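okkk here we go again. third time trying to get the pyridoxal-5'-phosphate bound version out, last two times i messed up the smiles copy paste (missing a bracket lol). double checked this time i swear
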Amino acid sequence: MLSPYLSKEFLRQNDAETVIKLNANENPYGPPKSVLDSIRHFDGELFRYQGIYANNLREQLASFHGLESQMIMLGAGSSVLLQLLGHYVQQKSATLHYCSPTFNILPDTLKKAGGKLNSLPLTTDYKFDLAALKEADETPGAIYLVNPNNPTGTFYERTEMELFCKSINSKTLIILDEAYIEYAGDGQSLVGLLKQMPNLIIVRTFSKIYGMAGLRMGYLMASAAIIRQLQQLVPWPNHDLSTLSLVAAGNALQSSSFVQTTRTTNARVMQSTIKALESLGYRCSPSVANFVYFNTKGKNLRAALEGYGVQIGQLDYENQTFARVTVGKEQEMERFVQCLQKLN
Ligand SMILES: Cc1ncc(COP(=O)(O)O)c(C=O)c1O
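finally!!
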């Protein structure tokens, strides 16, 4: 439901024409035009179920990542796959070790299923505490890593993450959520480790840099043995996928120039947003993703900005209040900064 703050009347009074949505880490530039064209000009048979298109996308992803298609599982958004992983961890009676704050669907699913969780704090520079996670690991165990992390945007380079994963007991399941990895640059994913590490699961999405959040398409990659076990938890794998989303995702994989341009534009707009926030006295974490996490100086910025038609996220972390703003288009960020200036 629309907050009462965001009624048309309220927005008019506050000189805001439209709502600026900077709260869900969506990519305002997407999807790529070729993806939209592939939907507009689709001439296949929509009266048929999507099975063949799901198989095609698995093949396309396999060749994109240099894997076999049996190592890929699709989902209507990666959230669905993270929920599935929650049930998988529960089935193995494993304790899930992770750091907070992070993206919560996997821990929340496990909690609701009555599973065991061990939430550790981030380091003082807002990163996953790899040393503490290694120390806490026990058998049967699972570790959830989000790299770059949401909401902090903090990141470990591939080499460091690889060393960490290799140092972990090979019986421990490592679930690595790479929802924002493309923003961190080429060659940062741990996909190349999958063939050597049968305990590694990588989760990816088309919702972020590909700008396809509304199309709901995500996937996970793991050993064929893990994929088979996961499929046993789902009565009909792929049944909830849509043909058009599958076609669109396959097309998106060919949009490397779109990915590059989005990455560069996002980085430029993010740097100027961070600069503006810091000049207003806010402390920002060093993000490589498409959002910025900053200390609100004790203000309820989310409610206050909503009054100007600007939506951001806010959370209370260790009794200090933090906000997360998605990097939108340049003009949207200018408006965000103007509103913050009024509130300073
Ligand atoms: C770290 C992370 N993983 C996964 C997701 C889920 O994205 P989706 O379900 O759209 O694929 C999000 C969404 O914000 C996220 O931040």
